[in-house]
Amino acid sequence: MIPWKQLGTALTPEDGNPVGLFCRGSEYSIRVSGQELMNSRMSGSEKQLARLACDALGPHLKPRVLIGGLGMGFTLAAALEGLPPGAEVVVAELLPELVLWNRDHLSHLAGSPLDDSRVAVEVGDVVKRLDRPARRYDAVILDVDNGPGALTQEGNAWLYTTQGLRAIRKGLAPKGVLGVWSAIDSPSFTRRLKECGFHPEVHRVRARETGKGARHTLWIATRR
Ligand SMILES: C[S@@+](CC[C@H](N)C(=O)[O-])C[C@H]1O[C@@H](n2cnc3c(N)ncnc32)[C@H](O)[C@@H]1O
After folding, report:
1. Which is the most buried residue in 98, 154, 183, 202, by most CB within 10 A?
2. For ligand 1, which residues put their CB under 6 angstroms from it?
3. pTM of the predicted model as reported, rounded to 2 decimal places
């Protein structure tokens, strides 16, 4: 078996959790504190998140979309496929190293989505961006953790709270869409979305595009 090789290291700014980029042949893995956050062989549900969120947006000439975070760029690439030429896509990525890794090692995986002229990458915490949104978004697509209970850094917990969801709702245009990825289902999160003024749909989808692999949960929640 080919051994894993470490290509890069970083630290989360808040908690100092170690983040690593690993490679084994053509397979890539991003790990936080030793736990896998993203694997290049399993991108089906990450793409599906973007597809479902873009579908829920309906016809729109110039949608403004916020994606947090970048990972390996699969969600971003799928969103770009589903969005019109006039779309504006802001990618909020916590770690500057992740952006560099995408340019240096990972761009071939998702077809170099960072080169698309509709995309602006902003290095920083998506929590801060959503807490005080400068302008409204038509869609906010979040895949920053392994789910509402498994966090890259402690501060991300806010995103899944009543306070966080109410702030995100405020930052969405009328009928705006919030998409959230999770490795596991969370009925309490679905209830919270309803309490915070969203109409959530819960999708259980397979990890792999082949229809195989673990089931992941996607919430596509429309602002009521
Ligand atoms: C699971 S990966 C995203 C995978 C991505 N959907 C894809 O298609 O490859 C999570 C990403 O979110 C980033 N991240 C974690 N917390 C964040 C935060 N608070 N703000 C912005 N990005 C964050 C991580 O650095 C990582 O790049």
Report:
1. 98
2. 37-38, 43, 46, 68-75, 92-95, 98, 125-127, 143-144, 152-153, 156
3. 0.97
The single-letter code of the amino acid at 176 is G
Q: How far apart are CA 49 and CA 202, in angstroms?
A: 11
Contact 59, 137 (CB under 8 A): no
Domain boundaries, the chain: 42-223
Report the DSSP beta bridge partners of residue 151: none
The predicted pLDDT at position 204 comes to: 97
Ligand 1 centre and the CA of 162: distance in Å?
21
Using 50 as the pLDDT threshold, list the residues of the chain that sit under it: none
What confidence score (pLDDT) does residue 113 get? 98
Cα atoms in the Cβ-side hemisphere of radius 13 Å centred on 84: 9
CATH number of 42-223: 3.40.50.150
Q: Please give the DSSP secondary-structure letter assigned to residue 16.
A: -
**Among 89, 174, 178, 170, CA closest to 131:** 170
**What does DSSP assign to residue 175?**
E
Whole-number percent of the chain with pLDDT over 70:
100
Q: Which pLDDT score is estimated for 134?
A: 80
H helical segments located in the chain = 44-57, 74-82, 96-101, 107-110, 126-131, 162-170, 187-195
Q: What is the pLDDT of residue 89?
A: 98
